[in-house]
Amino acid sequence: MRRGKNGTEVGVAAAAAFELVVPVTATSTLIDSVHDVAQRPGTAAAGRWRFDNVIGIDTPRVVDCPIDERHRHVSPSHRPIAAVSVVAQESVTVDVVFDIGRELATAVFLSARTTTGEPDERSTALALHLASETRAALVAVGLTARLRPLDNC
User: Fold this and answer.
1) Which residues form the domain of 111?
2) Using CA atoms, how far apart are residues 121 and 22, in angstroms rounded to an integer?
3) Cβ proximity of 85 and 109 under 8 Å
4) pLDDT of 65-104, one tens digit each?
5) Which pLDDT score is estimated for 120?
6) Predicted model pTM
7) Which sign does the torsion angle of CA 111, 152, 76, 145 carry?
8) Rounded CA gap, 104 and 78, in Å?
9) Degrees, nearest 5: CA angle 87-74-116
């Protein structure tokens, strides 16, 4: 089992998704921050994500994606409002689902699955990196942001 830069385990036995929670009044800031972090140039040290001996030096693409059943299952008490896919190195994908509740807004970073249904380790590493860097960006502008792994995705 590998550990990410913040000490969280990354691997097939680790969480396949990470939830970032902010007050509902910060929904637009959350969405903007995810996009900003995802589209940082990989040549900037802060924009790099790592997996094994691979260091992401390209700039990931962010594309809209339809909200499907996997996305709706993530937070049954919340309402999904948008979803994007972050694609790095042409083959590593993380879906980010934004949803809102009465008091909270969330971004759930979902790693891709292998053909056997297990979380893809490279995708999980990227999901954790994106979630951690987005949380840091939100805290830097004075927002309270809580990050936690999800096991039910």
Assistant:
1) 16-150
2) 27
3) no
4) 877 766 565 555 667 888 898 887 767 788 899 999 889 9
5) 76
6) 0.78
7) negative
8) 9
9) 60
pLDDT score at 6: 42
Q: Is residue 56 part of a domain?
A: yes
User: CA angle 140-32-47, nearest 5°?
Assistant: 65
Structure tokens at 36: 């900003």
Provide CB contacts within 8 A for 48, sequence distance 6+: 42, 55, 56, 57
Range 13-39 average pLDDT: 88
Helix (H, G, I), strand (E, B) or coil at 31: helix
Q: Give dist(CA 119, CA 153) in Å, integer.
A: 10
pLDDT at 130 over 70: yes
The CATH number given to whatever domain includes residue 29 is 3.30.530
